[in-house]
Write a structure and sequence with these properties.
The protein has a two-stranded antiparallel sheet. Strands 3-4 form a two-stranded antiparallel ribbon. The chain has one domain. The chain is of the alpha+beta class. Helix content is 33%, strand content 21%. The structure holds zinc ion (ZN). Zinc ion binds next to loops.
């Protein structure tokens, strides 16, 4: 199983909606999630790396 990086839903790796970014494959639960990711992939990938932000809003 893989995870939809946009909404966090668990998606089957064989799902028809997928994108490749940075050499990694991502699958999506719906076309709208894929469209969001395709528009701005880094937004969804960097959201899980608080270290890169360095903000004090803990
Ligand atoms: Zn989704």
């Amino acid at each position: 199983m893989a995870k939809d990086p946009v909404c966090g839903m668990t998606v089957d790796e064989k799902a028809p909606l997928k994108s490749t970014h940075g050499g990694k494959n991502y699958v999506f639960c719906s076309a709208s999630c894929k469209a969001k990711f395709d528009k701005n992939p880094t937004q969804y990938l960097s959201a899980k790396k608080p270290n890169e932000k360095g903000g004090p809003d803990a």
